[in-house]
Give the backbone structure.
Amino acid sequence: MNSGFLSRVALRRDAAVQAIAALLVPQGEGRQHGAAHHLLWTLFGDTPDRRRDFLWRQTEPAHFMVLSAREPVDTHGLFDIESRTFAPVLKEGDHLRFLLRANATVDRKVPGRARSQRHDIVMDALHRIPPGQRAQARDEVVPPVIAAWLARQGVRSGFCPDADTLNVESCDMLRVPRVRETGAATFGVVDMTGELRVTDPVLFMSALLGGYGRARAFGCGLMLIRRAR
């Protein structure tokens, strides 16, 4: 797959939809992401066995950017949607600006266990620092850890990030309530911007449409790009 659809999706403002807006867009970022996880499925879940083939990020409550293999279809009349074909013409050496929200993780071997254990990369790095020094060291630790993670993504995804332009805008933990279970799904979310150079256009396009990192069902993994000046 080398093309898709990029869409702006917003909950409609008419009275019928706004009457149930509090149910569709609850208070709290974690609850909103949990609700959107299900809500956006209404645009793509046409069959019971359909697998998720779209990425999304919330830009503000009830407003989303969505990158999908299929054009979204609003069968319930809940959204205003602006869609366009996403098929950028890229070549090796192209320089692009990017915006990415990612759940970045690393797998660590656990002695005595066959399976590795997954860790948030920031928490994994901070764990090596004495507890009393972690808050002070955080600003120094986060940028190189994120830069190294992004470079690894680039090696297998057809791009080379420019470390000098990388800006980590935020690094937080998101708690998303579980619908059928007690507790919440908790994971790290990093917002970053910067520039990159395309090294393999075909591989890069495939990776863009597939997403980066984990928690893609909860609004992570979508990289937005534009030409660098």
Observations:
- The radius of gyration is 19 Å.
- DSSP finds six helices and eleven strands in the chain.
- The helical segments are 15-18, 21-24, 29-39, 121-126, 134-157, 201-210.
